[in-house]
Amino acid sequence: MSKLPIAVIGAGLIGKTHIDCALADPDIELVGIADPTPAAAELARAIGVPCFADYPSLLATAKPRGVVVATPNATHARITIDCLEQGAAVLVEKPIADTLDDGRRICDASRATGLPVLVGHQRRHNTIMRKARAIVGAGTLGRPVSATVLCTWLKPRDYFDVAWRRQQGGGPILINLIHDIDLMRFLYGEIESVQAQSSNAVRGFDVEDTAAVVLRFRNGALGTVTVSDATVAPWNWDLSTGEAARFPRQDINAHFYSGTEGSLTLPRLEVWRYRQDQGPAQGWHDPLTMERTAVHTGSPYSEQMRHFAALIEGKEQAVCSALDGLRTLEATLAVTQAAATNTAVALPA
Ligand SMILES: NC(=O)c1ccc[n+]([C@@H]2O[C@H](COP(=O)([O-])OP(=O)(O)OC[C@H]3O[C@@H](n4cnc5c(N)ncnc54)[C@H](O)[C@@H]3O)[C@@H](O)[C@H]2O)c1
Fold it and tell me: Where in the chain are the domains?
């Protein structure tokens, strides 16, 4: 069977991860890279893959059936729509775009061309999240009531040497919190209102370094998230899962989901309930039990690439469609708006 031709546009930090995943997948052939930098040309030479300085040449020459778009946020819409119009399905990195209008244009182009778009919220492909979704979906928690999520850690001083990271849009809300909001939506469904406060008190840059968020879900549950990149703290998804090797793993929880029948912690996948052999749930004087599930872990980026190929072949439905990516972006942008206006923002916008 012939391999599926895939290309990568943007061979920077995350583009290299996608390139490695495509090279490692036995059912995929990496047919080209587009990126104007000398570093990208060097990388392409090293792995023996054609490199193009501009992506229209890549599309015309290499004729990929799927393209990974791993370029800066503001370029996502233009490049994704061009790829779709040239007949290639797209895996676009998160956020789907940097504005809702651009995100909607991607949804429209996917519909018009009949080609799928997968948004790169790779955490959805983590086996921990898949198990968590199965636990919540099976009704183990009963009726979802609350979600408490922490996303706190310290970005090093030199991270801010790059100007855009000190400006609005370059901070932990759009870069990091968007992943946690996406996971909360993955487990609890749509968000219908957002309240938030943000602060730049530690670093004093234009961009926030901290935010506290309250979410109301359509299913009636309430969620809170604290995000800060200015604290010495381990409580966040990256450090607690070790999902990417560049983060040293801590064996702790960062997400806590509670319902009328039980609770779930992540990433340790602990389910807390009253003893099932002693009748219906009683109350806080009765002993709780905890059952922890261990799952096989693998790279969510590799699994995302496998899923992208299956999506192109029409064998699977998108785990994070363009519309899903748009809804996550909408909720995340609402955090910034709610904090700036000190009002609750209703969704969808
Ligand atoms: N899912 C994740 O875990 C994750 C992690 C990091 C970044 N991201 C996302 O990935 C995207 C890229 O981030 P990054 O950190 O890799 O950025 P980066 O700056 O390291 O890399 C971007 C690359 O795109 C290239 N590029 C820019 N415009 C281009 C164009 N028109 N055609 C071809 N190449 C072009 C640049 O030369 C650069 O090499 C962003 O949207 C970011 O939000 C996702």
Answer: 4-115, 124-298+329-346
pLDDT score, position 280? 67
Distance CA(286)–CA(194), nearest Å, equals 35
Any atom of ligand 1 within 6 Å of the Cβ of 55: yes
The CATH code of domain 124-298+329-346 reads 3.30.360.10
Is residue 122 in contact with ligand 1, taking CB distance under 6 Å? yes
Whether the bond between 267 and the residue before it is cis, its omega within 30 degrees of 0, is yes
Kindly report the pTM of this predicted structure. 0.95
For a mutational test of ligand 1's pocket, the pick from 93, 96, 106, 123, i.e. the residue with the most ligand atoms closer than 8 A to its C-beta, is 93
Whether 44 is in the pocket of ligand 1, judged by its Cβ within 6 Å, is no
Ramachandran quadrant class, 89 (left: phi over 0; alpha: psi -120 to 50; beta: rest): beta
pLDDT in tens, 176-228: 999 999 999 999 999 999 999 999 999 999 999 999 999 999 999 999 999 99
CB atoms near residue 74 (< 10 Å): 13
In CATH terms, the fold of domain 4-115 is Rossmann fold (3.40.50)
